[in-house]
């Protein structure tokens, strides 16, 4: 509207000047040129205004710059002609006062015309840039609102100005934020899936001791519908002694279960009591201090333990005792205590005694395995004669080695080891006999098994070396695990249960030691262990 008003006022002024200078043959042609240049300039300005009103900012700006190149010569000519009219008018004013008055009036009109043209030009360029900046700033503001509401942003502004740079940074920030939100959402979904599917009961307890959250596993464990545990006190989930108040019971649970596993009896919705392992961890969130509880139903585990203990008890009392009697009878039979027997009978009695011995060894290993699992395979250390340990090992191993045609060489006591060491002598003999037995089994006929020892500080190293087939590299780390043998046929051909080395490992570790094997396939093996032998 201001532009139209300025343009119309300019042409009205020109019309007035034309009427005033109609008889001025010298200046009227100049005024005609002024009128023509004004029309040309206004046409250019009209095109610029149309572009501002209808086209994007950058397109309108580029068009305005091009049109300004065409407008400049017209504007210069217009300014020159207006200046010529003003100078001519000043000369006339010098001739008479009346003419001066009329001249001042015409000068005023000329100045008005020039000012109107300048105003139109200035207004157009201000309008062009102001409209573009306002529009682009509005885009930024709208993008801010869109990002806040999670909507898609407007297209990124083009150009190389500060607003375009700011919009580019804004889009990059929005993209990064959206990416992080998506990653966070995916992470939350994974955590939620884990919480819902993990076979362990999880609960969160608030500051007053009430359950705030429980996962489906915990709800199923307590035989309640989803969310039914929310609001209940933590102490109400467990069987409380009658003499203990709920408040004191809750304190006891927290003291015993924080950072460690505590065994408790829990209550299902139908009143059934079942055993659980419970532990808690404190953490903070935006709502304050919270407690994360982990509940594991150990009913099945305890039932398995009960069955295993019953089996071990049966093996120990119902099998071991009669097998001992059978072994003694066969030994007497083989020795001829019941009269002279045919050679074939004596040989069969010897084989039977050997089989009974293997069964008794299996029973002993099973009993030791049970002690390992229950944590009761303990060592009883005392001052022990190292020479006696070596002699006991020799006595327990030599007969077996000779029966297999294997030479057994045990390094004598005086090889740099103190006569007294602080160990569980019986358990160390058990380890050595087991290692020698394995070495004999896998040695070639007429092979040699050696036992050596070395003391460094308070550490004793024992080494049992054979000339057997060796242990493949892939088995060297797992051979000390229970039921592990190098080849599946070994148990049938060589005998053994795959428990001996696992038991050896447990005994050595309880002496603060380590056990391992050095071997090269086809060139034998050396099983060694190091233990602490001082108090």
Can you give a write-up of this model?
By secondary structure, this protein is of the alpha+beta class. The chain folds into 4 domains: 2-145, no CATH class; 198-297, Beta-Lactamase, CATH 3.30.450; 302-372; 379-532, 2-Layer Sandwich (Heat Shock Protein 90), CATH 3.30.565.10. It is built from 13 helices and 12 strands. It has helices at 2-20, 28-54, 57-93, 97-149, 162-197, 216-221, 246-257, 299-335, 343-374, 386-403, 425-441, 490-493, 500-509, and strands at residues 201-205, 211-214, 262-267, 273-285, 288-297, 382-385, 407-410, 420-423, 448-456, 459-465, 514-519, 525-532. The chain has a 5-stranded antiparallel beta sheet, sandwiched between helices. Strands 7-9-10-12-11 form a 5-stranded mixed beta sheet. Strands 6-8 form a two-stranded antiparallel sheet. Helix 1 (2-20) runs antiparallel to helix 4 and helix 10 (386-403) runs parallel beside helix 11. 23% of the residues are buried.
Describe what is shown at a glance:
With 535 residues, the protein is an alpha+beta fold. The chain has 13 helices and twelve strands. The chain folds into four domains: 2-145, no CATH class; 198-297, Beta-Lactamase, CATH 3.30.450; 302-372; 379-532, Histidine kinase-like ATPase, C-terminal domain (Heat Shock Protein 90), CATH 3.30.565.10.
Under CATH, the homologous superfamily of the largest domain reads Histidine kinase-like ATPase, C-terminal domain
Structure annotation, total helices? 13
Q: Mean of the pLDDT scores?
A: 79
User: What percent of the residues sit in helical stretches (DSSP H or I)?
Assistant: 55-70%
Q: Please list the strands of the largest sheet in the order they lie side by side.
A: 2-1-5-4-3
CATH class of the largest domain: Alpha Beta
């Amino acid at each position: 509207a201001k532009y139209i008003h300025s343009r119309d006022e300019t042409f009205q002024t020109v019309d007035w000047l034309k009427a005033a200078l109609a008889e001025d043959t010298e200046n009227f042609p100049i005024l005609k040129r002024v009128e023509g240049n004004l029309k040309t300039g206004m046409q250019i300005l009209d095109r610029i205004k149309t572009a501002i009103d209808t086209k994007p900012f950058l397109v309108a700006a580029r068009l305005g710059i091009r049109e300004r190149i065409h407008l400049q010569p017209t504007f210069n000519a217009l300014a020159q002609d207006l200046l010529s009219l003003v100078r001519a008018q000043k000369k006339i004013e010098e001739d008479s006062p009346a003419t001066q008055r009329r001249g001042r009036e015409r000068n005023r009109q000329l100045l008005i015309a020039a000012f109107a043209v300048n105003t139109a030009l200035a207004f157009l360029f201000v309008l062009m840039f102001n409209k573009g900046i306002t529009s682009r700033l509005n885009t930024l503001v709208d993008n801010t609102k869109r990002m806040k509401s999670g909507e898609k942003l407007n297209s990124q502004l083009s150009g190389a100005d500060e607003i375009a740079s700011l919009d580019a940074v804004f889009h990059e920030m929005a993209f990064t934020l959206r990416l992080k939100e998506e990653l966070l959402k995916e992470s939350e979904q994974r955590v939620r899936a884990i919480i819902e599917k993990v076979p362990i009961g999880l609960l969160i307890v608030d500051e007053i001791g009430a359950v705030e959250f429980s996962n489906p596993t915990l709800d199923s464990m307590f035989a309640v519908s989803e969310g039914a545990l929310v609001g209940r006190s933590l102490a109400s989930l467990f069987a409380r002694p009658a003499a203990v108040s709920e408040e004191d019971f809750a304190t006891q649970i927290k003291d015993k279960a924080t950072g460690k596993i505590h065994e408790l009896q829990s209550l299902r919705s139908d009143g059934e009591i079942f055993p659980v392992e419970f532990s808690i961890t404190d953490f903070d969130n935006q709502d304050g201090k919270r407690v994360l509880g982990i509940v594991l139903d150990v009913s099945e585990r305890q039932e398995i333990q009960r069955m295993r203990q019953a089996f071990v008890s049966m093996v120990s009392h119902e099998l071991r005792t009669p097998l001992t009697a059978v072994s003694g009878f066969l030994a007497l039979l083989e020795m001829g205590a019941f009269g002279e027997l045919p050679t074939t009978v004596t040989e069969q009695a010897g084989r039977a005694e050997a089989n009974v011995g293997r069964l008794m060894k299996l029973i002993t290993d099973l009993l030791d395995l049970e002690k390992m699992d229950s944590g009761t395979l303990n060592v009883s250390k005392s001052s022990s004669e190292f020479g006696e340990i070596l002699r006991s090992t020799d006595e327990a191993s030599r007969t077996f080695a000779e029966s297999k045609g294997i030479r057994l060489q045990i390094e004598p006591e005086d090889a740099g080891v103190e006569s007294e060491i602080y160990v569980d002598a019986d358990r160390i003999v058990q380890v050595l006999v087991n290692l020698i037995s394995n070495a004999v089994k896998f040695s070639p006929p007429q092979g040699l098994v050696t036992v050596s020892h070395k003391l460094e500080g308070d550490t004793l190293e024992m080494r049992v070396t054979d000339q057997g087939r060796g242990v493949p590299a892939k088995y060297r780390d797992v051979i000390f695990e229970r039921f592990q043998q190098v080849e599946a046929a070994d148990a049938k051909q060589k005998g053994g249960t795959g428990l001996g080395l696992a038991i050896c490992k447990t005994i050595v570790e309880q002496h603060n030691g380590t056990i391992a094997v050095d071997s090269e396939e086809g060139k034998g093996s050396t099983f060694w262990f190091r233990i602490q032998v001082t108090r």
